[in-house]
Amino acid sequence: MRLRSPVLAALTTGAMLFTTACGGSAGSSEPASPSAPGPSALRTGLVTVTFWHGIGGAPGEALQAEIDKFNAANTGRIAVKVAFQGSYTSALAKYTSAIRDKSTPSIMVSNDITTGFIHDAGQTVPAQAMAAANPADLDLNKLRPAARNYYTAKGELLAVPLATSMPLLYVNDAILAQAGVDRSTLRTLDGVAAAARAINAAVPGVKGIVQPFDGWWFEQLTAAAGVAYCTPANGREPGGATAAALTSDAQRKAFGTMAKLYTDGVGLDVGTDGANGVKAFTTGKVAMMFNSSGSIGNLQKAGMQGYSTLPYPISGDRATSGALIGGAAMWVSRVGHSDAEQVASWKVISYLASAPVQERFSQASGYAPVNTDVDTSATEQAFLAREPNYATLSKQFAETPATPATAGCLSGAMPGIRTEVVAQMQKAFAGTITIDAALAAAETAATAKIQDYRRQAGL
């Protein structure tokens, strides 16, 4: 569709509010999916594919290495020109300008919270449609259910996940042993809370737990409780999300459990930056840490020994509850791009999501492989045997149920929602207001953000 000016205004507002946090997605109600071109569109002759991303460091180097391999294998047929944008934030800002200038890339790699921005902009063709039109390429059934679930709306996959992270519980082995904590009790949020209190009481000068205060972690608490963050159905049905949902009994209990650890002096406040949590954990100031799976690499770089990773604890029914994913996905641009370019782009995406590439990329980057065929790879199993902390991530990813709760909230207002929720949760965790008052205020403010976004976007 052609982007109407009110929609672009709403999306631009969303881009200005965008943050680089790890999780949460966005979206709304697109009336109909565009058709996708098939293999016949890719005729003889060279097709150039532009590829924008904001993945830096070792993961960015691993990504470039795979694209170099693709280019070498497709000489004279498809040439991928990569443009690293410096960060996801910069990439989103440039993409917003590119929509106005009609100069979007062939493939846009954007992180999870921008899902709604890209979807609502109407510039792309859904991955589901590309897969149906090109059955010899990527088999969507090979994508990890939790990842596929996250980027799906109304039963249709919007984009193909590339780099996927998840929350984990990190524990200092020696401190847990000193406090007499049985790690088998750490599978539930109540068990983690009890362990944090035991550690704080038994080990002088050490806090029990640290959790960053960015919005992703409050979404994690909700998904792990097995309930929706927005309604109806976490915004996954036609019509999209119309209101925030933050005051259920399950959320009040889960949020209250964490808030009380902080008001009782058991939790360590490091603000919204997960890197501060890593620093506190590596220096022994705190015994347990909730952080992204990406922190495994940070801990290795810091040379930390004597720690373990455990699955993110659940407070709800394990059949319907679990952790949300973070990371980035690949989108095929439609508006202003030829059929041949779209099919060539799909070839690139299919390659990057294939099992051999995902295995190499995950081992080099620390992200979890999204293709389930990696599970049967002997070299992958050998890698996981050598790296038990990555094995925790792989197992959690495979076992997370694909449910409405674990899909996360799909709303174009997610950046604004996070701002409102974090502001209220910081008050509750500091003890200046009750958790019930904070959740009620956050729900009201977040719902206003959703309604404002819908009005601006004409939804």
Alpha carbon gyration radius: 22 Å
By CATH's scheme, which homologous superfamily of the largest domain applies? Periplasmic binding protein-like II
What's the CATH class label of the largest domain?
Alpha Beta
Main sheet, how many strands, which sense, barrel?
A: 6 strands, mixed
Give helix % range: 40-55%
What is the general shape?
globular
Number of strands: 15
The tally of helices reads: 19
Mean pLDDT: 91
How far is the first residue's CA from the last residue's CA? 14 Å
* Annotated CATH architecture of the largest domain: 3-Layer(aba) Sandwich
Low-pLDDT segments, ≥5 res: 1-6, 14-31
Kindly give the count of domains: 2
What is the fold-level CATH name, i.e. the topology of the largest domain? D-Maltodextrin-Binding Protein, domain 2
Helix/strand-derived category reads alpha/beta
Short structural description:
The protein has about 450 residues and is of the alpha/beta class. It has helices at about 5-15, 55-75, 90-100, 115-120, 125-135, 145-150, 175-180, 190-200, 215-225, 250-265, 275-280, 295-300, 340-350, 355-365, 380-385, 390-400, 405, 415-430, 435-455; strands at about 45-55, 80-85, 105-110, 125, 150-155, 155, 160-165, 165-170, 205-210, 230, 245, 265-270, 285-290, 305-310, 325-335.
